[in-house]
Design brief:
Elements (H helix, E strand, L loop, with lengths): L2 E4 L1 H8 L3 H15 L4 E5 H15 L1 H14 L1 E3 L3 H8 L6 H12 L4 E3 L13 E2 L1 H9 L1
Parallel strand pairs: 1-2, 1-4, 2-3, 4-5
Helix pairs in contact: 1-2, 1-3, 2-7, 3-4, 5-6
């Protein structure tokens, strides 16, 4: 079964109802819910997404997100080793380097994000939700 790492922007598209990106981001999460693929994210992504949702929608919505996402995705830890390798990775953005390293350490097959340019140094495939849906349809 395919394993994917889901970045925060994909989660926020769905939980903040970002119309422009909602459909494909929702389709990716639906594949996880249906158990067609196995979805992962990191503890950092969950914390940052909770914070963003709470600021926009309030605590109740943020808690609903937390309950849904922890029932849907597997949460990967960010360890000291993850951080040490990420800081020396050459990525332009440290947070993306941490997410990438977390995916690599756990044998994840690809990363799903709308910020693919931030993963230029990735050795595993990185797709937007739209690109990933198209690949699955082939």
């Amino acid at each position: 079964m395919k394993s994917i790492y889901i970045d925060s922007n994909v989660l926020l598209d769905v939980f903040l109802d970002r119309k422009e990106h909602l459909e494909d981001s929702f389709r990716v999460l639906k594949l996880v819910v249906e158990k067609s693929i196995v979805g992962y994210t990191s503890s950092v992504i969950i914390i940052n997404s909770y914070y963003s949702i709470r600021k926009v929608c309030g605590k109740d919505q943020a808690m609903a997100f937390l309950n849904t996402i922890t029932d849907t995705l597997n949460t990967l830890p960010v360890t000291q080793s993850t951080i040490m390798i990420a800081k020396d990775s050459g990525f332009n953005d440290f947070e993306d380097a941490v997410q990438y390293q977390c995916a690599v350490e756990n044998g994840i097959e690809c990363i799903i994000t709308r910020n693919t340019k931030d993963y230029a140094k990735s050795l595993i495939p990185v797709y937007t939700p739209s690109e990933y849906i198209l690949i699955l349809l082939k």
